[in-house]
């Protein structure tokens, strides 16, 4: 009687090769490569797994994310400062996609699409991190220069601040 038991060593070897191959790519490029591989080799569930931190925040704050578009959310929140504009778009990205970490370039790109580009997106994120309590935290930095790409995450207080804007 033969079982379809996976060869763990072979699978781990393949995972290491994939990890090595993706390690030099930007996160967006790595996601494109992985999506291509999934299209070629098989399907994954259509709804991505929710991260533990997002699930925990939803249980604490309530899961009432009912906006159909960023423009609708932005109009309802009506943020006044550049930092608040960045906060609202970060909220949208974090809640409407499977991304837990957000990069400032993506946030400013969305703001520009809305006609509300921020003159200095880095300063806007610094402002959000300087507030007490912090509305955003920096989770990683890619590169060693001051201009290196940074990843951010909204804190529970940041999520609450946005919800207060449109409640």
List the helices and strands and how they pair.
Elements: H1 8-22, H2 27-41, H3 52-61, H4 70-77, H5 82-96, E1 102-103, H6 104-113, H7 121-130, E2 136-142, E3 149-154, H8 156-165
Antiparallel strand pairs: 1-3, 2-3
Helix pairs in contact: 4-5, 5-6, 5-7
List keywords for this structure.
single chain, 167 residues, mainly alpha, Arc Repressor Mutant, subunit A, 3-stranded antiparallel sheet, 8 helices, 56% helix
Would you give an account of this structure?
The protein is mainly alpha-helical. It folds into two domains: 8-41; 52-165, Arc Repressor Mutant, subunit A (Orthogonal Bundle). 56% of the residues lie in helices and 9% in strands. The protein is built from eight helices and three strands. It has helices at 8-22, 27-41, 52-61, 70-77, 82-96, 104-113, 121-130, 156-165, and strands spanning 102-103, 136-142, 149-154. A three-stranded antiparallel sheet has the order 1-3-2. Strand 2 and strand 3 form a beta hairpin. Helix 4 (70-77) packs across helix 5, helix 5 packs across helix 6 (104-113) and helix 5 packs across helix 7 (121-130). It is elongated. It starts with 7 loop residues before the first helix and ends with a helix.
């Amino acid at each position: 009687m033969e079982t379809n038991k996976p060869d763990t060593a072979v699978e781990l070897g393949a995972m290491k090769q994939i990890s090595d191959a993706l390690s030099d790519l930007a996160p967006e490029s790595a996601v494109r490569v992985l999506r291509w591989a999934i299209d070629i080799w098989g399907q994954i569930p259509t709804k991505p797994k929710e991260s533990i931190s997002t699930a925990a925040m939803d249980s604490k704050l309530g899961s009432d994310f009912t906006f159909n578009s960023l423009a609708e959310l932005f109009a309802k929140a009506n943020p006044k400062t550049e930092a608040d504009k960045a906060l609202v778009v970060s909220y949208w990205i974090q809640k409407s996609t499977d991304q837990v970490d957000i990069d400032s370039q993506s946030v400013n790109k969305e703001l520009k699409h809305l006609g509300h580009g921020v003159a200095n997106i880095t300063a806007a994120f610094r402002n959000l991190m300087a507030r007490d309590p912090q509305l955003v935290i920096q989770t990683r930095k890619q590169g060693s220069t001051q201009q290196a790409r940074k990843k951010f995450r909204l804190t529970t207080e940041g999520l609450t601040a946005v919800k207060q804007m449109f409640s």
